[in-house]
Amino acid sequence: MNIRIEQLRKKMNKEQVDGLIIQSVANRKYMSLFTGSSAFLYISQQQQVLLTDFRYVEQANIQSPNYQVIDYGKKGLYTTLNELLKKDQVIRLGFEAEGITYAQYDQYKEKLEVKELVPICNWIESLRMIKSEDEIRCIQKAASIADQAFTHILSFIKVGVSEKDIALELEFFMKKQGAENLSFDTIVASGVRSSLPHGAPTDKKIQSGDFVTMDFGCIYQGYCSDMTRTVVVGKANEKQKKIYHIVLEAQEKALKNLKAQKTGKEIDTIARNIISEQGYGDYFGHGLGHSVGLEIHESPRLSINEETILKPNMSMTVEPGIYIPDFGGVRIEDLVIITEDGVCNLTTSSKELIEL
User: Fold this and answer.
1) Rg (CA), the chain
2) What is the pLDDT of residues 314-337, one digit of tens each?
3) C-alpha span between 108 and 95 (Å, rounded)
4) Which of 36, 83, 310, 337 has its CA 20 to 30 A from that of 129?
5) How far apart are the first and last CA of the chain?
6) How would you classify the pairing of strands 92-96 and 19-22?
7) Is 214 helix (H, G, I), strand (E, B) or coil?
């Protein structure tokens, strides 16, 4: 934790920012380990303070021993902040440009006694790109729970079961295995609805011959997992088999080439070219993948516009897909950790075409 604060202070010193307010949930947790729903962090070269209300004072003292914890409810947030700013003689105060609303910015401008408010972008997010051993351990556990859920759900899926039933069963099972929550709302789309990349589960009943695409994940100790598998209920027809194996080939080729020093654009292009060469380029409209951590979608990405150089210990999903309206779709997604010469794949579920 001290290393993260030191890294942030170096950035503040370089950019001549005297103090910094952090309030976005993920950045706040990353910098302090505090998991409550209401808090602000104030960091300067002299001190680091966690400001919260009475409900969370005890919790904050336990979770964030490197911070001075102040109950701002006694004097009010802005009075408390101004006392800290005055003590540190802050002239230029940084705030998260993407972490506050315009109305909040107006409040800062009106009530905080500083000469200049400085918007910062991606200072903490850039630190979060490289996962620590503890972070990887949590992501790996979340991925393991999702793998177990996939194995479990295969015996649950059958003709007549609804998409909502499948989603609820996945959620129930993951929480029973120790998940804190879902990484995102579970996606279950079957039959022609599987052409919807983010199809929310409905009351539609599974029918024989349906593709069933399931995109799901869970949170373990604050960290997310993400995986997708597509199965067929009954026997797959030739077109289903063809599309499935094109997607699988694209994913496996991308995984084989994914490693440190590559860019997200390079890896996306590898998978996209395979799908395009088979005539389905127009049916793969999203990026190949994204990083995962405290949030389900983090940077960097695997996409046609991503020039970031990938580094060891970045987490990444690899999830090509083909989505054909009025027919159906396939997506296959693994969650990996990038290494110097390849990846460590955290998703262990089979990727062979499963016919139930």
Assistant:
1) 23
2) 999 999 999 999 999 999 999 999
3) 9
4) 36
5) 47
6) parallel
7) strand
> Under CATH, what is the fold of the domain 133-345?
Creatine Amidinohydrolase (3.90.230)
- CA–CA gap between residue 21 and residue 78 (Å, rounded): 12
**Domain locations along the chain:** 2-128, 133-345
In which order are the strands placed within the sheet that holds 211-216? 187-190, 211-216, 227-232
DSSP string across 116-135: EEEEE-SHHHHHHTSPPHHH
Are the beta carbons of 173 and 149 closer than 8 angstroms? yes
The residue with tokens 């998409």 is: 163
CATH number for the domain running over 2-128: 3.40.350.10
CA–CA separation, 235 and 277 (whole Å): 27
CB of 192 within 8 A of CB of 326?
yes
Backbone angles phi, psi at 297, to 5 degrees: -120, 110
Query: 300 with 276: CB under 8 angstroms?
Result: no
Q: Is the pLDDT of residue 234 over 80?
A: yes
Structure pTM?
A: 0.95
> 2-128 and 133-345: same fold?
no
> What tokens does 166 get?
């499948």
Spell out the alpha helix ranges (H) of 39-101.
57-63, 77-88
Q: Among 161, 238, 210, which residue's Cα sits nearest to residue 327?
A: 210
State phi, psi for 131 to the nearest 5 degrees: -85, 140
pLDDT of 160-171, one tens digit each? 999 999 999 999
Q: Residues 6 or more apart from 84 whose CB is under 8 A from it?
A: 19, 42, 44, 47, 49
Q: Give the C-alpha separation, 288 to 23, whole Å.
A: 30
For 7-19, the DSSP string reads: HHHHHHHHTT--E
DSSP 225: -
* Residue 232 DSSP code: E
